[in-house]
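Chapter review. Work through the record for GNAT family acetyltransferase before attempting the end-of-chapter questions.
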Amino acid sequence: MIDKTLIPVGGLKKEPFSGSHNGMRYFFQCDDSKETFFVYIYPEPWSFEKTPDEEKEKASFPLTEEGMDAAINWLHEQFNAQKERWFAASKEMMHTVLAKE
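Structure tokens for GNAT family acetyltransferase:
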């Protein structure tokens, strides 16, 4: 799904990180204290900013290597627990995009 080495802990202090996996989008963002970061998950196809808040879920973690490990585990758990949601979002993605044109 996601490789922890692609998201250096120190890098989150400077820039958010986003990606997707089979219909589940994710967004990592450091808080103002630079000691904690949030991970949001939401369905394809829209960006974090364009997705309604009610479709997002989030968890917070300490900005440490252990926190990053916990965040990656949380992503895997959420993907597996909501596979139908993510696969449906992935399947509908092209229909949604084509309908907007």
